[in-house]
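Hypothesis: this fold can be encoded by more than one sequence.
Test: take the structure tokens below, design a sequence, compare later.
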């Protein structure tokens, strides 16, 4: 038996806070458990009543003599700890805390919350919440929430860090005909988190797709690992891209801001589909729920109005799907039967006066075309449009084909009846073409991603330099001296621009002669992150006289900025280069302070990521960057090059050629270096010069833990 069975498949449930008053939440939970047809034992717990809803009432959990698998606690936060202690005394199987008023309210709430965990840990009792709505498992006939009692059964498992979004999904599902296997309201994720459910839901044959609304990831690396091996598609909506939204998350479930670029990369590289909006989440779940198996990207559109057909065409192409090129035999067949003014090319316009039979004919013909993977049927309500008849024909034709068919009846009240017929037949129906295209794209991307995932081997072996490099870094904390950082890069044969670190002005002259004029003179210090901002770089120094002057100016600057132990660096001055950036960052665990001196880990990070893009002083202005999680595979490197203008220019735009292979090689070597130096926290190569057939690291910063 899995420990989560106590939560999702309990044989007995006690409800603490089952009130005598029907409108109180605890009572609603009890009533929902009864109404959902739960076959196990039910124990209302309330010291003020003898019987509630026809059941014998007990004053406390431990007063129940029989075994209790699940306890749902719905009393105010300040009384929860005592009940939890009683649950430990009774050795119950699992606990759900509905009450809000914990970590989402601030430090005091957090301390309260941690006490619950500490007490439950004594007997390893899992806890869901607090600040949650409860759970639903339709196959076990349990609805232990205060959401609506009747839920459509189906194959969607939905985990939500917002109870309200969950109830909206459940309500919407009923309108459009989709159903749920499970609903789990995660709340503040004090103990159980998304990661605990992925494996469990994967093993449940009633689950077809897992949807999640997450405000933060409890353990990023673990999530990636679980998602990669998940046999069920995982669809995630993670808000918090704007500063204002991040602030709002803090007061909702106490979530801390997590880096957006990292989350997107981590999800993409683990085969998870990330969606941007609530509509996209709902419709994507609908498509995954009803369509089994892979689909191609060639889409046919049948419409009774030109405008929506063209808009849909744009959406399809912009999102990376393709408007199917119909076979000439298909076009001929269409032309033979459709009116002469109909458009027999995709998007196929069956004209405004099309009745159900014309739609049915076009649909059958297009579905039979080998060049078509899926069909979108658009309908606008015109005076003569047979909305109901067309919907019925769509249902009939769909039964004859394995291809995915999506109906989009545009409009309001007039098309409502048609939409209903479609959804009750489990055919994906959307209100607007963009909803369909988003969901279709996600379906297509998922299977493409799965194929890439199967080729992915994340086992990088330590290189022969690992031991030496780690011994050089022994005792180093924080910023690594530039010369040492450069030495480390040299081990990996990462090409560095020739440089000289002069001891004094006389040595600088010797260095400049070696490097040969014109040269660049730089002031080096761990505190100098943006050298150009403080004029710490002298470019195009032509001769000895200019060198002495630049050296003196930079020395004065170092004194003015109080840069103790500063150094100078001399490099050749090179022009006509493409300036790139390669950065590595470690996504740290998020810690929060509890009490005076204690900190706890709130969430675990995603590990190392690599960023590539346009470098130089305007990196932060242009933001032409692409990021991937490390370890990288070849496909990842191809992606980051394709996803940036820097990468596209590098491949040779307007007759200027660069050495892409060498840039790829530097990225691969950094991938290895990160694997070898596990306590590396940051590596910043900016700029990396690409010039003709050469590539050089010009500036490097390295930080270790
Ligand atoms: N053991 C058993 N029963 C207890 C009890 C205890 N220790 N303490 C109180 N009770 C009883 C009460 O007497 C009451 O029963 P009664 O109405 O028959 O007298 C019942 O439990 C409920 O307690 P009450 O104090 O009336 O609480 P409430 O129902 O008004 O509120 C919560 C409790 C949990 C609903 C409320 O505190 C809360 O947190 N609301 C927000 C919930 C939320 O939004 N969660 C997140 C969703 S996403």
């Amino acid at each position: 038996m899995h420990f989560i069975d106590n939560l999702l498949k309990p044989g007995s449930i006690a409800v603490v806070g089952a009130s005598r008053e029907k409108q109180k939440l605890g009572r609603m939970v009890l009533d929902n458990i009864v109404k959902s047809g739960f076959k196990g034992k039910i124990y209302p717990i309330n010291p003020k009543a003898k019987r509630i809803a026809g059941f014998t009432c007990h004053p406390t959990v431990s007063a129940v003599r029989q075994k209790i698998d699940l306890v749902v606690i719905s009393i105010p936060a300040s009384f929860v700890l005592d009940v939890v202690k009683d649950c430990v005394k009774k050795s119950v199987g699992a606990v759900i805390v509905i009450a809000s008023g914990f970590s989402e309210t601030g430090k005091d709430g957090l301390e309260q919350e941690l006490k619950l965990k500490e007490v439950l840990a004594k007997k390893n009792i899992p806890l869901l919440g607090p600040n949650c709505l409860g759970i639903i498992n339709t196959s076990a006939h349990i609805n232990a929430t205060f959401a609506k009692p009747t839920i459509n059964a189906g194959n969607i498992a939905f985990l939500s860090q917002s109870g309200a979004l969950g109830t909206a999904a459940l309500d919407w599902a009923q309108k459009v005909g989709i159903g749920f296997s499970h609903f789990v309201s995660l709340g503040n994720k004090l103990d159980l988190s998304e990661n605990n459910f992925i494996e469990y839901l994967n093993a449940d044959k009633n689950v077809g797709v897992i949807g999640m609304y997450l405000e933060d990831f409890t353990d990023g690396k673990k999530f990636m690992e679980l998602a990669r091996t998940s046999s069920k598609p995982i669809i995630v909506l993670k808000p918090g891209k704007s500063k204002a939204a991040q602030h709002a998350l803090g007061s909702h479930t106490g979530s801390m801001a997590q880096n957006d670029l990292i989350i997107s990369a981590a999800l993409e590289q683990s085969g998870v589909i990330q969606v941007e909006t609530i509509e996209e989440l709902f419709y994507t779940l609908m498509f995954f729920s009803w369509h089994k198996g892979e689909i191609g990207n060639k889409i046919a559109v049948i419409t009774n109005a030109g405008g929506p057909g063209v808009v849909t065409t744009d959406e399809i192409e912009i999102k990376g799907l393709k408007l199917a090129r119909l076979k000439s035999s298909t076009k001929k067949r269409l032309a033979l039967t459709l009116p002469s003014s109909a458009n027999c090319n995709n998007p196929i316009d069956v004209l405004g006066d099309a009745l159900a039979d014309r739609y049915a004919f076009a649909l059958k013909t297009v579905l039979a075309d080998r060049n078509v993977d899926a069909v979108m049927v658009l309908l606008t309500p015109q005076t003569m449009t047979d909305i109901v008849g067309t919907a019925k024909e769509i249902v009939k034709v769909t039964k004859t084909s394995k291809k995915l068919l999506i109906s989009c009846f545009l409009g309001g009240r007039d098309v409502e009846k048609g939409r209903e017929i479609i959804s009750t037949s489990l055919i994906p129906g959307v209100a607007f073409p963009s909803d369909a295209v988003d969901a279709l794209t996600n379906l297509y991307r998922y299977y493409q991603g799965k194929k890439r995932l199967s080729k992915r081997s994340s086992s990088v072996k330590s290189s022969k330099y690992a031991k030496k490099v780690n011994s050089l870094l022994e005792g180093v904390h924080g910023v690594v001296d530039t010369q040492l950082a450069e030495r480390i890069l040299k081990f990996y044969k990462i090409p560095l621009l020739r440089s000289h670190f002069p001891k004094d002005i006389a040595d600088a002259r010797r260095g400049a002669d070696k490097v040969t004029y014109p040269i660049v003179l730089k002031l080096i210090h761990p505190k100098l992150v943006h050298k150009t901002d403080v004029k710490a770089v002298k470019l195009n120094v032509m001769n000895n006289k200019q060198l002495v002057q630049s050296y003196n100016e930079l020395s004065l600057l170092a004194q003015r900025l109080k840069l103790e132990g500063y150094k100078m660096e001399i490099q050749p001055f090179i022009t006509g280069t493409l300036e790139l950036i390669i950065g590595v960052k470690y996504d740290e665990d998020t810690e929060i302070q509890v009490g005076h001196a204690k900190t706890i880990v709130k969430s675990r990070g995603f590990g190392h990521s690599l960023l590539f893009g346009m470098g130089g002083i305007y990196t932060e202005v242009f933001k032409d960057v692409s990021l991937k999680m490390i370890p990288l595979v070849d496909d990842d490197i191809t992606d980051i090059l394709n996803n940036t203008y820097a990468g596209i220019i590098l491949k040779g735009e307007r007759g200027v050629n660069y050495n892409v292979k060498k840039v790829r090689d530097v990225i691969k070597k950094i991938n290895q270096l990160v694997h070898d130096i596990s306590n590396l926290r940051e590596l910043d190569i900016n700029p990396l010069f690409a010039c003709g057939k050469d590539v050089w690291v010009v500036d490097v910063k390295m930080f270790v833990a």
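The chain has four domains: 5-215, 293-455, 498-573, 578-704. The chain has a mean pLDDT of 92.
Hypothesis status: open.
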